[in-house]
């Protein structure tokens, strides 16, 4: 019988490769392209710096650092790497030489460009100082001329055109006062504090004037666009000058020379403007040259990055191989799927020809007792479901995989809690958008939440389809029932029948509603008791069925691994215990539905334990029920010691027979065979814990499935509240504005609470039911995943 796909992991085998040193890199490169070998680390005692190819890994890291620098420069310049259609013909050494030549050249271009920008920004500020401060001097001179004309008779005809400081020379030497000034530029947010500090430092013996610039200017130090002001500080004395210069340096103010004479200012402005124009021309040429160099690098950058990453990946794999005593060959051990061996051998032969090696790689299969890795061939549809299982634990090698059943059971249990075909359609539309844009979204970098939703798009697809299915069963469309599958089997005889609890709804035809819940139940006072009973019993049936499936899968594991003790003393007592109690309860629920009996199942189950010999009276559903229950109770009681005692005792007996029969001759025949220590007390305690866990878990796990009932009820009631208390309430006002607001609130509440929060809640509860209630019946999950040497995994490892 062929093995079911996904039900058990692929057959794995351990292989050994003996590769000549000269062709090792090329051979592993071809094997990484194939992606069918997971190499074991044969040098665990060596640090990364002591390994054979440590220097090559360092060289790759250095090249990656330089390539990342180029990538950062492209990003800063607003240029995107443009993949070239032509493959690079450089080998690793040639690429290293080229990168080592490009990096210092490009850094020099960057450095020169930064110097030019700094000089350009300084000249721009200098020009602004000449304009703004010169305007202040001209204004002061004009004011002084007008004042002089008014006081001409008093001033004696002194011309204001003479330099301001020249008037000091006319004063007696003993009364001469040296007045100086400093001009510069400072950030606007520092100007007020700058003025206060200067005022305190000079004790008020200064005159401060600042003029804000009309536009932001580039700061020479940082290159950022900053709001600045031009300042002028007049002072007297050399000590004041020294203090002000220190304050300017502390505040990062840029000082510029400023001549007092008008003619010199005009001449200096012409010179600065000419230098600024020349500097801008030089800067434009340098920027064009830099952009050309960057574009040249951008054409090959992605190819170079891929090449270096692949080489580093291969060298890291080579470091896991051990060097033989002759230092001419590398010896490696790797796990491989059994079906991939022919392709591996073909790849090795091809690699030998490609690398022009005179010696072929030796490939042989090894026999070992070591546990192989677990490998499932998944596609984009099944991978998300397998990830749900692997998040609990990677399966032991070739144990039954719950991922096969999770494809159906997980979205179905979700839908039981989320059942509303209106909400299901909205969820389906969102999922279809993800599927239609699958190729575009798969090539983009998405956010964390969007990345999770996209990865589980096929899980969402089945969740939405099953939600529509269960929504039809519950007959709920945003909590509104519809007669889709025919007419109702009941009718109202009086207008007040919707308020009645037992009388009012009259069944007028024998044929029930074709599919799902009869719409007449919605809106009646008996809706909640009816749906409560239905969903609670349905939850118990689904839970018991899934737990029984888990126990049956433990039988498959025991048969596959040839463990007869687990069959006789684990599977049989477990299936009998669960079936005799909760399987019987499920049978009674179905029988009550079929017969329409009024029996109280709570009373039946409680007195099955408290009074097993009492008469059932009106709670009897079939003949001989009392004696049948006594038999089931006896089976459940006998199953507990059946699980607990025989297995540890038989294991102890087998161990004693094995140790007594070996003797010294047996030990000499198998000197390398490992003998595990046998501790009866540990085995017995482990079996005791396992028995108690199963017995108590049978009760608690069954009760845990009642969350299907609770969340389904909560979802339906929330949907009804939003519909009746928001949408219908707003509609009753007959006001278009209120109706529009009510509709917006209804949509936001439905999307935010029912389609986001409730989806997440139902998802997590379905996850818990699979991990705890279902998988713990058979799934060990202590294996490790098959992670082959493959360039496909290169991007994932780089991100992590």
From TrEMBL:
Q: Which residues form the signal peptide?
A: none
Q: Name one GO cellular component term.
A: vacuolar proton-transporting V-type ATPase complex
GO process terms (BP): vacuolar acidification
Instruction: Tell me a Gene Ontology molecular-function term this record carries.
Output: ATPase binding
Keywords from the UniProt entry: Hydrogen ion transport, Ion transport, Membrane, Transmembrane, Transmembrane helix, Transport
Q: Which residues cross the membrane?
A: 412-435, 455-474, 540-563, 575-595, 627-645, 735-757
Q: Where in the cell is it found?
A: Membrane
Enumerate the InterPro entries for this protein.
V-ATPase_116kDa_su, V-type_ATPase_116kDa_su_euka
Region of interest (Disordered), ranges: 141-165
Q: Just give the chief location class.
A: membrane
Q: How does it sit in the membrane?
A: Multi-pass membrane protein
Q: What family does this chain come from, according to its entry?
A: Belongs to the V-ATPase 116 kDa subunit family.
Cited function: Essential component of the vacuolar proton pump (V-ATPase), a multimeric enzyme that catalyzes the translocation of protons across the membranes. Required for assembly and activity of the V-ATPase.
What name does UniProt use for this protein?
V-type proton ATPase subunit a
